């Protein structure tokens, strides 16, 4: 149990007792600068100042992608999905086209140059410089 003199509870910036929120996640990259700049440019975000071994990209909802250089073994590709406003979707697709990155309608990358229209929205998948499977979507998936 924390010392309440050092750590008063509840913390002013804490979410409610029932809420759990993702704060950050580490994204392994061979070149953290390249990968952070790539996703920031595609999504229209900015790369933050280094924080220890991490290079953060703030997603604007209290979550950061903390890029970490991992050069001692292969990168294990992960999946990251970004909910983007519908008005911004075409801009993201145009940025991918401008830098020559192929986007796909499906997560297995079998439908190049197409988008999906799942759940009344639009979505697409693309690979980042380390092979992470990035997704943009305009509507969250409907869960039972």
Structure description:
It is a single chain. The chain is an alpha/beta fold. It is built from 2 helices and 6 strands. A 3-stranded mixed sheet has the order 1-3-2, with helices on one face. Strands 4-6-5 form a 3-stranded mixed sheet, covered by helices on one side. The radius of gyration is 18 Å and the shape is globular.
Short description:
The chain has 144 residues and is α/β, with parallel strands linked by helices. The chain is built from two helices and six strands.
Which class do the helix and strand fractions yield? Answer: alpha/beta
Beta-sheet strand percentage? 15-25%
Number of distinct helices = 2
Largest sheet: 3 strands, mixed
What is the H-and-E element order?
EHEEEHEE
Write down the overall mean pLDDT. Answer: 90
Low-confidence stretches: 1-12
Shape by Cα distribution: globular
Q: Assign a percent range to the helix content.
A: 10-25%
Query: What is the straight-line distance between the termini?
Result: 37 Å
Number of strands: 6
Using only CA atoms, what is the Rg?
18 Å
Major sheet strand order: 1-3-2
